[in-house]
Write a structure and sequence with these properties.
- This protein has about 600 residues and is an alpha+beta fold.
- About 50% of the residues lie in helices and about 15% in strands.
- It has 19 helices and 15 strands.
- A 5-stranded mixed β-barrel has the order 4-7-6-12-11, surrounded by 4 helices. The protein has a 5-stranded mixed β-sheet with strand order 9-10-14-5-13.
- A hairpin with a 5-residue loop joins strand 9 and strand 10.
- Helix 12 runs antiparallel to helix 13 and helix 13 runs antiparallel to helix 14.
- The two termini are about 40 Å apart.
Length: about 600
Amino acid sequence: MAAPKKGRRSPGGQGRPGRTLVLILIAMVALVGGMFISGTSTPRLGIDLAGGTSFTLEARNQPGKPNAINETNMNTAAGIMERRVNGLGVSEAEVQTQGTNHIVVNIPKGTDAKQARQQVGTTAQLGFRPVLTTTAGTKTPSTTPSPSPSASSGKGDDGKKGDDGKKDDKPSAKPSASSTTQGRAVTSALKKGPSDTPTASGSTSPAPSGSPSPQPSASADEIPAALQKQLADLDCSTKQSRAEAGEKAAGVKPSEPVVACKDDGSQKYVLGPVAVEGTDVKDASAVFDSQQGQGWIVQMDFTGAGGKKFADITGKLAAKTQPQNQFAIVLDGAVVSDPRVSQQLNGGSATISGGFTQQTAEDLANMLSYGALPLSFKIADETTVTAALGGEQLQAGLIAGAIGLALVVVYLVAYYRGLALVALASLAVSAVLTYTIMTLLGPAIGFALNLPAVCGAIVAIGITADSFIVYFERIRDEIREGRTLRPAVERGWPRARRTILVSDFVSFLAAFVLFIVTVGKVKGFAFTLGLTTLLDVVVVFFFTKPLMTMLARRKFFANGHPWSGLDPKRLGAKPPLRRRRTTAPTETKEA
């Protein structure tokens, strides 16, 4: 019975503190190594510290919607742009309305300004239009275009160029799914030639092979002569010509047909009226399909009304031949994807597949998710922002932080003496963890360190020091009760642990609520405060406590050296309880 009692540790005791210290040191080395391997040795700075680019966008009414510029739509547009350029809300990109018809977007240095310009400039009009005919993207003198298999292949979403109008007698190595048909014959030309066009599908499988032949596509006679001429004159070969074509197409009413370019210039189209508007798309996401081996796909969910519209248009397209069994996803007058339909898609959801890479799938899903705006925007002004003012404020903030840290150190040394070494070592570990994690979060989630975030890190010094003080005072209370250092360290830990966890939970809860309900720069403060609060728990549990357990075995601290901060005499310790018990028999004998 005596053996188990001898091996039992006190509540909160830690038998192998050295292993815990080695564990956190390994974690620190791994984080520092990852920081240098990633090629980032400093945190990514926000626009107020590093400068950046500022865009001013001017809202314009869409054709047929003269009263679209209002407070509600402007706020909706700003919110969509905010999600697109800011992600989790800590990349320091700022989006805010200005006046009645302007939105200002600030992008910090280190962010791809070209990509950001595209993101904020293309979140306007999104629509699904049926394809009437298509041809190569260069300007041609012909006024009677007709659909061909090579014209419909073009450049797909996997980035590979098609035949661009050249005849190919080789059969398709990867035939598309059969379409629902009504018994009309198909020309021999449409039976041949590969196609890189993505395919739209629903939850059910495509129609099996052997189905009746699909309807032939519309001839040039069925397309108005004015559209035939516009298609022949349309030039999609250069970026400038595509931009001009996109701006012109964006100005056409949704109820009218239009000619448009593919966003890469490989094809040009005659498109029917908008069948499904972008506002009918509820959500879209890029998913890797490992079960059916389709690779990266884009999943779309529609609203109730949008699902009905999509089922109706896909039912009509499935009965036609390529390219008229395709629908074009048009964003700001440019065709970003043109999947073909093999069956009617019901259920309010659909999948687009066909040679996507991860990047192209995510880009298309992003456009589908956030491309539906009731307004169109034009970049009215673009300026470069310097970091002169932010640099001065940062310098002042760092000086204030250094003064605060120096005062904390002076207080710890004067009041806790030797224990100040434990506190300073813990602060150093916390600083290393905070710096490396902030640096790694830059390329990982786009985190940018701004002035409020620096303030959050400075506030964290006090939170971390408070945790040490709570533990030190619990140890001192145990020593005042007459216990030696080693039992005091272990008995004081459970009480200190509860206090530290409650205190850090309150701080983290405040940071979380602040992060949720605020916008702009304050999110950086809340994020940094929450991060450093979590790191405080890690440092106290995995560094401070094990280090105290090891130091309690050293004579300098165990014997209560006057400079250890744990001198029983200075603390007013009571005599040991065992001595009180031994005096009772002596008093009895004298009596």
